[in-house]
Structure formats: structure tokens, C-alpha cells
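task queued by scheduler; priority normal; single chain, no ligands, no partner chains; default sampling; output format set to C-alpha cells
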Amino acid sequence: MESTSSSSSSSSPISTPPLQEEPEYLARYMVVKHSWRGRYKRILCISNVSIITLDPNTLSVTNSYDAGADFESASPIIGRDENSSEFILSARTDGKGKFKAIKFSSKFRASILTELHRIRWNRIAPVAEFPVLHLRRKPKDWVLFKMKITCVGVELVELKSGDLRWCLDFRDMSSPAIMLLADAYGKKGGDHGGFVLCPSYGRKSKAFQAASGTTNAAIISNMTKTAKSTVGVSLSMDSSQSLSAEEYINRRAKEAVGEKETPFGHWSVTRLRSAAHGTLNVPGLSLGVGPKGGLGEHGDAVSRQLILTKGSLIERRHDNYEVVIVRPLSVVSSLVRFAEEPQMFAIEFSDGCPIHVYASTSRDSLLAAVRDVLQIERKYLSLLDGQRPVTVLPRLTMPGHRIDPPCGRVHLLLGSQRQIADVESTSLHLKHLAAAAKDAVAEGGSIPGSRAKLWRRIREFNACIPYSGVPINIDVPEVTLMALITMLPATPNLPPESPPLPPPSSKAAATVMGFIACLRRLLASRSAASHVMSFPAAVGRIMGLLRNGSEGVAAEAAGLVTALIGGGTGDASLLADSKGEKHATIMHAKSVLFAHNGYVVILVNRLKPMSISPLLSMAVVEVLEAMICEPHGETTQYTVFVELLRQVAGLRRRLFSLFGHPAESVREIVAVIMRTIAEEDAIAAESMRDAALRDGALLRHLSHAFFSPAGERREVSRQLVALWADSYQPALDLLSRVLPPGHVAYLHTRSDGAQLEEENREGTLISRRQRRLLQQRKGHAGRGIASQEHSLPPVNNYEVGDPVRQINAGTLRGSDNYQKSSLDTNSGQSSAARSIENLTNDVASTGNPPNDHSPIIASADARMTNMHEESEPNVSNSVDSDACGPGVQNTGLPAPAQVVVKNTPVGSGRQELREALKAEVNKLDAEKARSEDIIPGGVTADVMAGHDSTPQISWNYTEFSVSYPSLSKEVCVGQYYLRLLLDSSNNGRAQDFPLRDPVAFFRALYHRFLCDADIGLTVDGTVPDELGASDDWCDMGRLDGFGGGGGSSVRELCARAMTIVYEQHFNTVGSFEGTAHITVLLDRTDDRALRHRLLLLLKVLMKDLPNVEACVLVGGCVLAVDLLTVVHEASERTSIPLQSNLLAATAFMEPLKEWTFIDNNGTHIGPLEKDAIRRCWSKKDIDWSTKCWASGMVEWKRLRDIRELRWALATRVPVLTSFQVGDAALYILHCMVSAHSDLDDAGEIVTPTPRVKRILSSPRCLPHIAQAMLSGEPNIVEAAAALLKAIVTRNPKAMVRLYSTGAFYFCLAYPGSNLLSIAQLFHATHVHQAFHGGEEAAVSLSLPLAKRSVLGGLLPESLLYVLERSGPSAFAAAMVSDSDTPEIVWTHKMRAENLIRQVLQHLGDFPP
């Protein structure tokens, strides 16, 4: 029954003063009252002194109960429905009568009953007490405590001191609330097991065990019954798990939601906790700092690490980094920046979690980072388009200002509630706000208490309506807007350049911020903005707040301006609805707010102080985004747009400092603004580039571009380095001194085919919609600026022949597409871009850098749209993992050899770059700090006075360079590191190695090869590293294209690289003018390893006919034949089962003593074997001029003129086996023979026989080729047989003499099964031999086949007929098969024991 006394008292003459002194409630809830008159809504207000019900329509008091005298108890109504929301409040109205049960219902029943029990806490005793053992995390032992079960929850009390150790309300228990632990034997529910209480809000669970005198079942039973009977909460229990206590501790230590997420930032903070280690719920009215530094009298303070990730806020302990609590960002409702305390802040939640209060020296940076992540993430989580703004309060939200404050139990049952105001509740609050506003403006606000009442309604409105604002379709009374505008403080009329006003008191600042926050919420209505703009005083008061001395007020005012001009929402439909009402409203608001240039100056000047709060700079930058950047930038008037650009560009170094802002969105916006300045104002862009160098900003952001974690400032830094280095030669020169040669070359390369791919990519710093804005503005901006400044040339009006302006823009993905924005969309590249492409063809291009460390590339056009995307895949994990992570995201091209940073040992090249940049940045910062100490506040004073700040020091960027000791041994040729090219070849990926200009690279390799042949570049006996360590040596490492110390090893690397390049690109490279030189050097070098590398190079050079001719011209045929003889030097012959021990034993025979030499005394020494000659050489008994002779030589020769000995004395370990050398030599000989056909185009035989055949047919060469088959190596035998066939074909003189070389015997002695080449040789030659003494006998058909064939005495005649009639294939098959037919009788045994054995016996130990 409603109280009439309360109603009459509220209408009495003394009812007005209480309006000024409205009590602060502990909580307010919207309930449904059940009475004999029906059900109707009431607002149940609970305070420490009274319980009041209000009519929600009028806010008049309907009932009031004294908490001490009129309130007896409260209890839930237990029904069959587990989700019942009814409860009974036992109270009396007159203070003397009987207590009556008043029935209410609310989904917040658990919270209401908890609060009602707490206000009578002193009059109720604990329900039960139990001795329990609590399992501590450290040292994992059970400690005796007392557990109190109260009417609202559970308390853990120290036995000795009686201090409250831990507490947990029933309403704050999770689901399941109780989990059973198993005992040591795996049994659950026993007295030796235990149970776990699980709290909500990411807090850690606690494990308990019944102590002596009680049982686990008794404790759990009492707990569940009490929770049900006192607050109506049903505690669920999980008995499905069988964890032991130790297993529970281990699992609890690993619990950390979000620990695997990439942190956006981490800060050292102090957590201010309430009593019971922060588990006691402290009313918001008593959240003061107590004597122990915590909240309340018994609260304490602990040191924590606060980690911000994409989806969570994580508290960790400092000592062991263990997670204490994890809070998802989705439940953060507001941030609190205490105006009174410069380091304190708090976080309020929307799921019922108690407020978290912290202190940090970097408070504003932390709050800015959290606010930024919150807004970005909510942009994607929200069902509505655009960001969800996050409020930053000057004080905590009073618990009694909200209606239905969040409750953990409701959040658990109903899920997360979206922070969006519904029409019904918003209309109700607007009604009360409008009524108070009407009284406040009536008669100039002279009604007593009207302003206090309005302030109370504003605070309640701000607490109940989300910061995103009222529903868009709701109508806001004009009187409300007028009252709010009226209550904003007026700003004195001062020049725009004047510094900010003196700061107001913290209470006054909080009040003004409340007014602004309320006004911002109202501006979400479609009609509110136009109403505000229509008030005469609105613009002056709103824009005047930007110069308020309180940074919190100025930041809130900047947010209000952003809301008025349509910023911050990211409404993608705005451009499509360019003629809509919202579009027109925004244009009108911008034109009114910035009608005077003074407001532009005031806005930008807030960024000038050196110590500006990150929250304020964030708010100002958001205004600049709405004015300059898309999607709303096109609604800005052109004159205002240009003035804003000029003012922002005038910030210079202060603008650079914003790239160190903790909010990623601010860094991105500033990058877009700077790019816009570069496009619209050439002079401002040039001054910014120069300032970036002098200030060291380019150095700092180059370091960030390489080494910042992915997703942080790295992308912005890449944009900036690209912007500042764009067509700016001093910056490009700096990059050439900082980056390794391959990166420098990449600055001039072009990434073909990447532009179209990036055209469709979303989410870049310069998105497609931003490019659209700049494209639309380009048409009138260039003309407008030119009309104001006739001397300003367009940014892109570069001379075609100016190489500085022609650095290739195509290296950036999508940059060509962006260039087209200033042209017709179908016109293709601009002439400047085409000339740039021609220029890069003359530069030593080196392809794309690898995916883990890409250089920053300067573009010729200022519109470098997606710079960060070109290099992002390459630097994602350059800091620690050095993997791509990092992937992300490469261009599809493999890593070229030009970039060696990752592949140096343990990433030392990258580490050297990082350390050099870091050291230079630290040195520059130290110098700046020292300069500020010498001239304290000089710069800041100038800035505050509105003048340009003159830097006290300037970075000496012209002399800064980075040396790479780890690259000193790397051989770099033509901007390529040879080791990586060779590694790609070893891995079978040489064909994937990208070369932009193979011809230039091949020539550079040969040039380096020739230079290292000059002994002047190296010093015998000197370690390469020592050459540059002494002042008495010139630093060879500084020579362009040199490294590795030079010498034979470098020449070998060059030869290997030339081999790989020519093999892959011989069609492009064409004929090589150094083929003859390579051939001669192959013969004359005393380096065995180099000889083998040159042999492989010569092998691939044979792919081109002019190279073959050049090689033959200098004696390459005989040289290749002599190389072929090396196969006989194999330490072991190829093992084939059929091979006889007769031939195999020759490899182990005593070496022939065939060499004799004349010593210095003229004495003949010998005969000696080769090993003895080598020993004499090592003892220096002989030298290159020593005369030597062996059997078969016509005359004595100097040692250097005897190829066999010269090669035998070669140094270094060979890289090819003897068989590999022979195989390469045979390939070369095949290429030489096939280079010139012995048939002309008409099919007639050419005479004389081609030179190569004549040379190879000579007695000097032909026997050696035939003897190669004695090696027994299948590949050698097969290739030698094919070569012999090619030599004697259409070469009659060689044909008839072939038998004299022993080739037929050697072929028949071969035990292998690959006989096709031998059969083809036999088929072409066996009946054409002059073994009877005359050539006519060989061709006489009158003789039997066995007589005509040179094989007649060696093979059965049946096999000869198979060869003659069936062909080589049938003959080869018959030779290795067992046949017993009327035509052929031939077996494997006949071949092995008869043919091969007897042939070898005939040959004896034939010397190789």
C-alpha cells in the first residue's frame, strides 16, 4: 500500500530543499510491485538510512522506509521456476505497527536482496561457521581457516587474527559455482577430497577441504541452501571432473584467457584493492584511499603488470608473471581518469564486476591505448556501423545514479547485454531531464535548487544512457539542449594564439565534463545537431571549451565537436547518401563551427604543448580526421581545409611526436594527414621532409618500420619513411648509407603485377575510400593552391629527365593504381611513371626482398598508397622469430640473394642494424635532453606563445651510416649476395631465383672475377678481417661490390654464380666474350677447386654457339680430352658385379715411375711416380721452370708446360670427383662436335670435315676418348661411346682407324648392362674398319659378315647378324639376356666367363 504520509510530505512547502539534498543511494532498481491494486513499476532506491520507492514517471516518492526502524527483512519467493524473480520485503510504514510483506519482482533479485541484507548487516549473524583447510598456491599446502556462510555469501577468516582473508557473494559465483575434487585415490565427494568455489569476473577459484569436526557435504549443503533461501541463487555443482588437489593447482596456474593474444601494450601499475585482498565489495560511496594505500580502511595496494590485448585486459603478478585476473574488453563500460589524482584511474564494467582502481605514472598513455583498442574492436563487434565511443570520466559513476546496475548473476543467466539505449528508458530519462532543464532556464535559473536538480538529472542521465547516445529517431526537447548550452562556461574573448586558460578546480572541471557528456549523448539524435547549431551562443561556448585549462574538459569538448561534424562513426553509407539530411547537417555544422579561422588556430594549438595528455591529443586528432580525412572530409569547405592543412603542417616536430602516441588510430590518422599535406601543399611537404631529417624522425621511424611488432607503429612508420624519402634525395642518400647494398638496389626496382592485387585489398592505412577523397580533392586543390601561391609547382610536376624525381613508384603495391587517380582511369601510367620504368632498366635491379626484412622504398609520386603492405610481410617477425609470420602475406616471389640480413648467423645483420639505429636514436635523445637542460623550456615557451619552435640541435644525418661486420665476409656482386644464390642452387631452387637484369649481373660477376685475380687486392698470409682493421690499410670493405676479403675463394664463388646465372638465363645473356679467357684459365690455374668451378662454367657456356667457337679457338678440344683422362685417377673403379678382378686391380697397382727431372745441379733424378714429384714440389726441390721428361715425350719440357704435372701439383681440395670431371668434359666435347653439322642444308656432306672432328680424330685425342670406357663408370662409358660414334660418323679417316684405339675391345670388356650406346657405335663402325690392312677390304660385300666385321673374332656370328639386321636395340638386349634358340645361343655366363675374361686377359693390365 502506498504511503500517504510520504506523498503529502513531498507536496508540502518544505519539499523543495530536499530536492537540493537528494540522498546518494547505494543502488536503484526498476521493480514491479505486486499489490491488491495490480502490478506497476517502481524505482526501488536503497541507501544506508532508508528504502524508498519512486514513481518512474514523476520521480515522486511513493513509499519511504527507515532502514533501521521500518525494515525487518527481505527474502526470495521460492517457487518451482528456477528463474523466478519475486521477493518479499518485510517493512512497516509508521515505525510502530506490524511488519507487512511487500511483494516485488525484478530480474536483479539477487543484487537487490544482497544490498538489502547489507544495510542491516550489523543486525544479522552468520548462518553457519565451519573449520576448513584452504589450499594455497604457494607452497601448495593446506592451511586452516574459518569459513563463514552469511546471508549474502562466503567469508574466509584468519583463525588467529580474525581478519577477513577472502569473500565471495552468492550473486558473483560462476556456473558451475562448486566443483568437487577427488582424494588421493580418485574418489570424489569424500571427506578426504575437497571442493572448489568458482567466482565470476575472471577471478581465480579457491580450493577448500573440510577440517576436523565437519564434512565437505555439510559445508556444501549449508552453502547451497543459504544461497537459495536468502538471495534466491541456485548454486550449481560440477561433479563430473576427477581432479586431485595437485592437478587443480597446476591447471589453475595455467588459466589465462587471452594469454596467447598479441599484447598491444603493457604497463607497470599499482592495483588499489579493497579489504580481503580485493574481494570485498565496497560501496561506491566509500571508495576512498585508506591508510594502507588501498580502498577503504582495510584495503591494500599491490604491484601488477597490466597487459592490453586485442580482446582482454590481463593483470599479472610482477614476480612470476602469473595471471591474476582477465577481463574481456567487451564488458568495459567506461574509463575513469581521476581529476584530483594525477596518477589514479579506474575501469568500470558492464557485467557486474566491481570497479578496478589503479595508479600508474603513465596513466594517460594507458587510458589512450585502452580507449583506442576498445573503440576499434567495438567497431567490428557492434551491429551498427561505426565505432562505439568510450567515455573517459573525471570521477567514478555513483552506484545510485544508475537504474538496474549490472549484476553478475543476470549477466550469467541472460548473457552479455549490449550497451545500447532502448527507446522506452531513454524517453523516461529525457522526460525527467527536460523537466529539470525547464526549471533551470525558467526565470534565468532563479528557482531555488533548480540547477542542483538539473545537475543530478544530468548525472543520472549520463549513468543510465550509454556513451553512444540516445536512439537516432528519438526527439530531444530543445529546452534540454538550451539548458545544457547555457550551463557551459563562457570563454573570454582572447586572441586565437593565446595559451589555454588557467585550469579550473577539479570539481568544476568534472561538472563541465558532465554537461558536455550529456550533450554528446543527445547529439546522437537526428535532430539534435541542427538545434544546437541554431543557438546563438552554442558555437562560441563549444569551441571556447577547446582552450579550457583542464585537459579533460578540452578533450571532452573536442569529442563533442567530432560528434557535431560527423566524425568518429565511420559511417560508410555517408558517401552514398551525399544529398541526404545527415550529409547536409554535417556540412552546415562544419561551416558554422569553423566559420572563423581563429577556431582552427585554437584547435591546432592544443597540439603544440610538449606535455599534452595523450587523451587530449587523441580527441583533437579525431577532429582533424573528421575535417580532413574521409569519409567526411569532402564536406569540409575548401578554405577551411587548406587553412587546417597549413596550420597542421606548421606543427612540424610536434606533429612528428604524435607518431609516438600510444593509440594506433592516432598514428594512422596522422599518417593520412601528412600524406594529404604532401599532396595538397608542396612547400609544406618539403619543409616536413627536411624537418623529419633534422629532427631525427626519419631515423626513429626507420627503426620502427623494421623492428616494431606487427600491428603496432610499424605500419605507420613505413608510411612515413616512404613519404619522407619520396623523391627527396637527402633522405634517399641516408637510406643508401643505412641499408645493405641489396636493400639500396631494391629502392630502384619495380614489383610487377602487384598493383592490381592490392587494388582490392581492404583495411590499409590509406584505404580505397581515402584515396577517393584525395582523388576528388586533387582536381580543385592544386588549382586553388596555385591561385593563392603562384610560385608553387604541383607536387607531381617532375621533370622527366630528373633522376631524383624518378625513383620507381611501382615498387609499392597499388601505387601505380593510385597514380592513376590524377589521370583518366583508363589512361594507364603517367609519362613520369613510364620514364621511371625506363630508368630502372639501367639500374642494377635485384628483385623483391625476402619476406622477413624488406627495405622501405621511396616512390616518385607522393601518392604511395600501400607502402606498409609491401614491407609488412617482410618485417612481421624481424624482432624475435625472424620468420614470416611471418607470415603474412608475401608477394609470391621467393627471397632473393640480395638481402642477407636474415640469413646471417643468428640474424646478426638485422641485429647490427637494430643496434646501430637504436644507439643513434638514444644518442640523439640524450643530446636533446641535454639541450633542454641547458635552455630549459625554451622550445615550449615559444610554442605556447604561438611561434615556431626553433630546434636547439639538429641531427647530423649527412654523416650517419651503418656498418655490418657480419657482412664483411659476404661476397656481394651487383647488389646480390652470392652465398644465397649458391644456396638456392644447392637446394634445387635456382630456377626460382629472381633476377631483374641477368645480363648486368652476369657481367658484374665476371668483372668481380677479373678484379679478384689481381693479387693487389689481397695480401698473402693476411686474414681478410685484418685488412680493414688497421689504419695502415685502406678499407676494402668500402669498395662498391666487394666483400669477403677477395682471393681465390671469391673467384670460385663468382664462377659458381656465373654458372647458375648462365644456366638459367643463357638465352638472355647470349654469347660471353670471356669464354676464351675462362678456357685458358681453366688450363693454367693451379687451384684445383677453381678449375672444377671453371669446368662447370664452361659446360654451361657451351649452350651458346659463339662460346663453343671461342673455346675451340684457344684449344678447348684438346683441353677437354685431357680433362677426360682424369677419370683414370679415380681411387676406386665403379663396382659392377660382372667386372673382373683383373681390371679392378689396376687401381691398386704400384704407381708407374715414369717421370724424370733435372735438378739445379744438372743431375737427372728419376724415374719417379707423381707422388714423388709432389713431395719434391713441397720441398721446393723443383719449380715451374724445372725440366721434366717421361717415356713417349719427344723432348724435355719445363714443368709448367706439362699439363699432366701442372694439374697434379694443383692446390686445394677438389669439388668434383674424377668421374664428374670426366662427365663434364664429355658434355663439352659433345657440344663441340654438334656445334657444326657435317651436312649442309641440302643434306650433302661438308668437306673438309669440321675442325672439331678433325681435332678429335687425331692420334692426340681419339685414343684418350676410347680409353675413357676403361673407367667402367656407366655414364662415362655411355657418353664416350656416343661421342666416338659422333666423331667417326661421316668422317672416313677416323672411321677406318677407330679399331686401332682399342675401342672395340674396351667396349666388349665393359660388364655393365647399359649397352645401347655401345651397340649404336658397333652398328655404325664394325664393318667399316681397315683391320685387314686395306680400306677396300672393309667395304667388300663378298666376304662373310664375320670376316667383314671387326667383331667377327670376338662375338658369335649370330649376334653380329642381330646387330646388322635387327639394329642396336635388339643387339644390346641380346647381349645382356640368356638365349637358347636355333638362331642364338648366348648366356650371361658366356659373356662373363668367356668374352669379358678373355678380352681382359688379352688386354692385360692396360695402362690408363
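post-processing summary
- The longest strand covers residues 27-35.
- The chain is about 40% helix and 10% strand.
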